[in-house]
Amino acid sequence: MSKWEEKQVRPVLPLYLAALAWPLASLVFPPYTLVNLALAAACSAAVYAAARHFCPMRVVRTLVPYATGSEDVDALLGGIDQNLEALHKLNDAIPDQQLSRALDRMEKAGRGIAAVVENEPDKARQIDRFARYYLPEVVKLMGAYVELEKNGVRGENAARIVAELRANAETTAAAFENQLDALYSAEALELSTDIEVLDSILKSQNLTK
């Protein structure tokens, strides 16, 4: 569940144009009589209406903070949101479709996990390692992969790294989904070592610090 809230905002340009139209209309219809005053007001109103027609409402995204009643849980969920946003942006830069689909699954599961914990803050302890280690680790590894692609690294080693990342990303996506499923049961789930496997792939090639 994303905490980005979208709301429509009315542009201020029509008001400025209407305000500007009033003195201009007063030059044509000096407001010394009630009739001229009404005509100037009508011109200003017409300009405002025309400007609103050509200046549609715009959508503004604002970050809504969590309010679960626990500062620790709110901070945990906020960190998940930040990492999911980072993962989404990295996914846009990943050309490999199979890997991109795996990241889509991770993001979807991650947002589902955040939604469950927001509604049931007592379950936050079940996702502590997911939020503080596994999800940030995936973001770090995918960032290294994007840099690999950006720098045009090719060759046998690069091909092997990509293949291993792709294979383990599928397993990691399944682990994230299992973590989400576990939140609906009475049993807590410990994620497997799949992300440690991903970490070792890049560390062996000096791609992480």
UniProtKB/TrEMBL annotation:
InterPro entries in alphabetical order: ChloroindolylP_hydrolase
Transmembrane intervals: 12-29
Domain of life, source organism: Bacteria
Keyword terms: Membrane, Transmembrane, Transmembrane helix
Pfam families from the UniProt entry: Halogen_Hydrol (PF10112)
Name the record gives this protein: 5-bromo-4-chloroindolyl phosphate hydrolysis family protein
Lineage start: Bacteria, Bacillati, Bacillota, Clostridia, Eubacteriales
